[in-house]
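Subject: Protein record for review, amino acid sequence with backbone structure tokens
Category: Structural biology, sequence-to-fold work with a learned token vocabulary.
Format: Residues in single-letter code; tokens as whole numbers, each standing for a residue.
Body of memo: The sequence and its backbone structure tokens, given next.
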Amino acid sequence: MSQARLQNRVLPTGDIVAAPFRGTLTGNRGILSFDGHGRLSTSRWKHKHWIVCTLVHPRGRYHGPQPARGWTPLFFLDEAVALAAGHRPCAYCRPDAYRAWVNAWTRAYGEKTGHKEMDAALHAARVTRNRTQIRHRALLRDLPDHAFVLHQDQAHLVLGRSLHPFKNGIYGAGIPRNPLDDDPVTVLTPHPTLRVLDAGYKVRTCLE
């Protein structure tokens, strides 16, 4: 089966779709099953440890879109998309990013927290039991770079003084955010992740 046909591309809205765009990172929520047409079953996770991984195994093996056992890869355009969907860095294949995440979490919350506690906090803030993304409202001027918001019913990345629309796996040209800074917006990125971004966690995106 062609990789592009699999329903394994994750959007900032939390939706998992079948799409041709390539991902620069992959992620793990456990073993998810596909039907004969590449569509996911109703399950969207098997555990709370939603992580962001490299495309290539640290030992140099490419796992492909359907490894023989252990997990089902999901693909993200970049880390900002993965964070908006509720994931956090993998300690095994991205140890530097994971340490930076833990350090930022510690600065944000005032104490060092284990991965199980972090994942529990993220899970409570990212999705409901019926697989609906949890969203909240905030003033645009209060949001850190690399957060995702809804603007005119479309996901936009907050970056510098611009909002960049995300559509079909690419970012569009930025629009000035100045006129919108005092407006409340719907935020897609989970609240704990916003705190980590505010505390200085550095995100790599396809725009930078």
The first strand starts at residue 7 and ends at 10. The longest helix spans residues 95-109.
